[in-house]
Amino acid sequence: MIAKPKIFIDGESGTTGLQIYSRLNQRDDIELVSIEASKRKDASERAKLINAVDVVILCLPDDAAREAVSLVSSTTVKILDASSAHRTANGWVYGFPELNPEQRKKIASAQFVSNPGCYPTGFLACIRPLIAKGLLKSNFPITVNAVSGYSGGGKNLIKQYHTFHEQEAGTESLYPYGIYGLQFGHKHVKEMHYYSELASPPLFVPAVGDFEQGMLVQVPLPLWSLDNPPSGEVIHQTIVNYYQSEKFVQVAPYQDSTLLRDGIFLDAMSTTGYAYAMNGTNIVQVFVFANDTTKEALLVARLDNLGKGASGAAIQNLNIMLGFPEELGLL
């Protein structure tokens, strides 16, 4: 009988850790290993467990993730880090399999893999094909506007959200749509910059909405600034071709913005254009809206920030790292 791969989720009680655990706990092709609650902060016990399993999934704050990696002495244990600590670090492979044709092979053979951030997943799904195929030059100035469900902020923001609603019970007040990261230099910008291969970092403005899960990432393109601007259909077809064999990236039919009813985002792949239409899946949808007369376009990615933006991506990467079918345990 072939032994099942042993998986240890370091930080399984956190938001992402709980999501990953619930997905993996339903499978019979792996063995989940846990540490006793009383020994979670015991470095020697953690080191012993980390080096005794096949894969460790780190669901920890950045500093704690770095500390966990420092405990690795085995050359055979594989580390999948769901934090942002190692996303552009030397010796680590970026866990976005759809980034380019070679990325899956790199993930499969790597000892250290870093799970992407949720916002960068949507951003890169939109922009990487256009940079790779030369429709946009690397020096094109890019801005990113995005909104995520409050679950993306982890335990603290989730607690803050529920506290707010408890205090405002019985009133018509809504949890505010909050723009944040206004010091700029948000921690996700570094991986957006690095893996897009843009010459300069994108200007990124994230926001949190009055909903739990889901995400819209918007990348406006002032095509009039180009000497030979591509049409909306050319942009769309380039992205379609880039992802033509991908299971977890869906490209919606082209949206000529001049034909949209009242200019409202109502797409053909869902009954609504809401941010949470992909919740519960490991799919990122990409939309292209364009007006060739005004030479403007908008790229939009829609995904579950706890799915393809976190735990779903982790399961996908784990499957690749173990040589399993990529879609196992995913919707």
What helical percentage do the residues reach?
Answer: 25-40%
The rounded distance between the terminal residues' Cα atoms is: 29 Å
CATH superfamily of the largest domain: Dihydrodipicolinate Reductase, domain 2
The profile of the biggest β sheet is:
8 strands, mixed
CATH architecture of the largest domain: 2-Layer Sandwich
Describe the fold and architecture.
- Helices cover 30% and strands 19% of the residues.
- The chain is an alpha/beta fold and 331 residues long.
- It has two domains: 6-116 and 310-322, Rossmann fold (3-Layer(aba) Sandwich); 119-305, Dihydrodipicolinate Reductase, domain 2, CATH 3.30.360.
- Strands 7, 8, 9, 10, 11, 12, 13 and 14 form an eight-stranded mixed β-sheet that branches.
- Strand 3 (55-58), helix 3 and strand 4 (78-81) form a beta-alpha-beta unit.
- Helix 1 packs across helix 9 (307-322), helix 4 crosses helix 9 and helix 5 packs parallel to helix 7.
- The protein is elongated, with a radius of gyration of 20 Å.
- The two termini are 29 Å apart.
- Residues 170-175 have low confidence and may be disordered.
